[in-house]
Each structure stands twice: as structure tokens, then as C-alpha cells.
């Protein structure tokens, strides 16, 4: 998941933002790895929908559901970084892949078909939009970030 407010180390969007703020190239370990990038509002909306349905029909919906991007909407790490740099307005990245680094899967995907068919849930944002929304939040002055987050939530539910 990506979105505003995450400043943890070793997380792709915060690492990108820190590099871009410092004018340094974004260091990318696995540029060809593909991940199911999604804005944090996507699974949150799914969980809220599921919670409401569980409240009304507990036994009917008591199973695991995946909330993620559409099957055809997955980005490689390099694509995500390039979108983030474009949305930031400047910057570059470099491949720092090295022999002996910890193994990471090359391809991760989520099967969201159960959520689509049983809950009627579908993602509202494409992966590229999710990156843009995240970068837009980080570009906000600190005293405007909370208000902007509420605007993004409203915009998400208006989609």
C-alpha cells in the first residue's frame, strides 16, 4: 500500500520522497520487480464494505478477501519510481541491485476476483493514480497535509 503519511525507512514512496527532497538519485534495488501497488484508501474501503456486510450477514461473508489493483494494473518498481519522479517534477533514479542482497520475489499479484464477485468491490484508482495521489500528499506543506488527506478521502468516495 502507498499513500501519504508513511515516513518509515525502507518503504518505497517515503524513500523516493526523501531522495527527491535531498536532490539525490532514488536508489532502486529491484527495478524489474512487479508489485500490486495500491493507494491505502482502496483496501480501507474494501474492509469497511466487508465489515458492514459481516455485521449484517456474518456467516455468509466470513472468509478471506483480497483488496488490490485490477489484474492488469500492476507496475514494476522502475515504473512506479518513474511515475513518482514525473509527479514530483524533477529527479532521477539509479539501479543499485547487487549480488548477495536478500531475495525478493520478482512478481507479486493479488487475486481480487472474490471481492469483485461476492462483495461488488472494485478498485477505483489505477496504480498510476495511486502513485500520483501519494506524491501529491507528500508535496503538501506539513500544515496542509491533514486537510489534504481529508480532501483525498472525499475525492475517493466521489469516484
Query: How far do the termini sit from each other?
Result: 19 Å
Biggest sheet statistics:
2 strands, parallel
pLDDT average, as an integer? 96
Annotation, overall tally of beta strands = 4
Could you name the CATH homologous superfamily?
Answer: UDP-galactose 4-epimerase, domain 1
Shape: globular
As a whole number of angstroms, the C-alpha radius of gyration is 17 Å
Biggest sheet strand line-up: 1-4
What labels would you give this structure?
single chain, two-stranded parallel ribbon, mainly alpha, globular, UDP-galactose 4-epimerase, domain 1, two-stranded antiparallel sheet, 159 residues
Task: Explain what the structure shows.
With 159 residues, the protein is mainly alpha-helical. The protein has one domain (12-158): UDP-galactose 4-epimerase, domain 1. 45% of the residues lie in helices and 6% in strands. It has helices at 12-21, 41-56, 77-88, 113-119, 127-139, 145-158; strands at 26-28, 34-35, 75-76, 93-95. The strands form 2 sheets. A two-stranded parallel sheet has the order 1-4. A two-stranded antiparallel sheet has the order 2-3. Helix 1 (12-21) crosses helix 3. The longest helix is centred in the first third of the chain and has 16 residues, at 41-56. The mean pLDDT is 96.
Brief digest:
This protein is mainly alpha-helical and 159 residues long. It has 6 helices and 4 strands.
Task: Summarize the topology.
Elements: H1 12-21, E1 26-28, E2 34-35, H2 41-56, E3 75-76, H3 77-88, E4 93-95, H4 113-119, H5 127-139, H6 145-158
Parallel strand pairs: 1-4
Antiparallel strand pairs: 2-3
Amino acid at each position: 500500500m502507498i499513500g501519504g503519511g508513511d515516513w518509515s525507512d525502507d518503504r518505497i514512496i517515503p524513500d523516493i520522497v526523501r531522495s527527491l527532497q535531498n536532490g539525490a538519485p532514488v536508489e532502486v534495488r529491484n527495478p524489474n520487480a512487479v508489485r500490486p501497488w495500491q493507494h491505502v484508501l482502496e483496501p480501507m474501503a474494501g474492509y469497511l464494505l466487508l465489515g458492514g456486510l459481516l455485521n449484517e450477514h456474518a456467516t455468509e461473508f466470513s472468509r478471506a478477501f483480497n483488496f488490490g489493483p485490477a489484474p492488469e494494473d500492476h507496475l514494476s518498481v522502475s515504473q512506479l519510481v518513474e511515475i513518482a519522479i514525473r509527479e514530483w517534477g524533477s529527479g532521477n533514479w539509479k539501479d543499485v541491485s547487487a549480488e548477495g542482497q536478500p531475495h525478493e520475489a520478482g512478481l507479486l499479484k493479488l487475486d481480487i476476483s472474490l471481492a469483485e464477485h461476492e462483495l461488488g468491490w472494485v478498485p477505483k484508482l489505477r496504480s498510476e493514480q495511486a502513485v500520483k495521489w501519494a506524491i501529491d500528499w507528500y508535496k503538501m506543506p506539513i500544515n496542509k497535509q491533514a486537510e489534504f488527506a481529508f480532501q483525498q478521502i472525499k475525492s475517493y468516495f466521489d469516484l
